[in-house]
Amino acid sequence: MADVAKTPAWEELIQDALGLIFRNLSLQEILTVVPRVCKSWRRAVIGPYCWQEIDIEDWSRRAEPEQIERMLQLLVRWSCGSFRRLAVYGLPNNSLLSFIADHAFSLQSLKLPRSEMSDIVVEQVAAKLSKITFLDISSCKKIGSRALKAFGNNCKSLVGLRRTMHPLEVADDVNEDDEALAIAVSMPKLRYLELAYLLLTTKGVLEILSGCKELEFLDIRGCWNVKLEEVFMKEKHAGVKVLGPDVVDSYEKSFWEECSDYSDGSMFLWEFRDDDDDDDDDDVSAWDVDEDDVDEQRSERLQVRFYGGGFNEAFAGFGWPLFP
């Protein structure tokens, strides 16, 4: 009888296969659990195959600016510039946007809601983001029509844009039809556009409808100064689904939420510390990233501390095991 071929052990799987598997795990599991299994899995975590999609949006909502910066720099370097999708909430500064652009060789989907970026820096780096097809710059208060035009002129494949605002934040703002005009002039291939609570007028929306011939969906909820006649829309723009300006359900999901990356929805928090802090805690499990393993990427040594309880009642009781 012929010898039965042996099934390779998990640790012997090639790195790209491991990366595909690990991408189905949460950020917390990838960073704190997987590296403890074996050296092969640890190598996979610090390699590019795990980080084709970098989604730290939920985690960054609860993180400090310096933590976001260190985490993002680490994961982008591990990806070796191969990340296709990036989602982070509250990018803290312009230099981090420049860092992302410098490594965005394959980037197609970029979500940066409520981020600190300026028109001038967007104009400087937009050419490096030319492969983007989906962009979320919601609640980014320091940018305007100049940044939108820069994105549009350089990101020729852009089909989805989300530029929604919080109603309380725009209550005292002036008319933003200049942003509508920038979109109409520079983003002709848009198919999905969300502009909820942007201070637009009917004129601005008509400019968009005229300039974006391929538009399929337009969200103008909360744009109270926009008046579109139903008869006009059926005759001139029958292929466009318009949501708003009335707000039917403030919790309604985005029409094209499938464009967004996976989200682990974790309620846990990691705290970054230097290796000099060696104190231990019953509520904490730690993973040290050794420089020897990532010398090619020159990552600084980083300790990720996972709080399974004791930090805040809201984060306790999830039953995650502690690791030695």
From TrEMBL:
InterPro entries: F-box_dom, LRR_dom_sf
Pfam families, per the entry: F-box-like (PF12937)
Stretch forming the signal peptide: none
F-box domain mapped to chain residues: 18-56
Protein's name according to its UniProt entry: F-box domain-containing protein
Organism (species): Vanilla planifolia
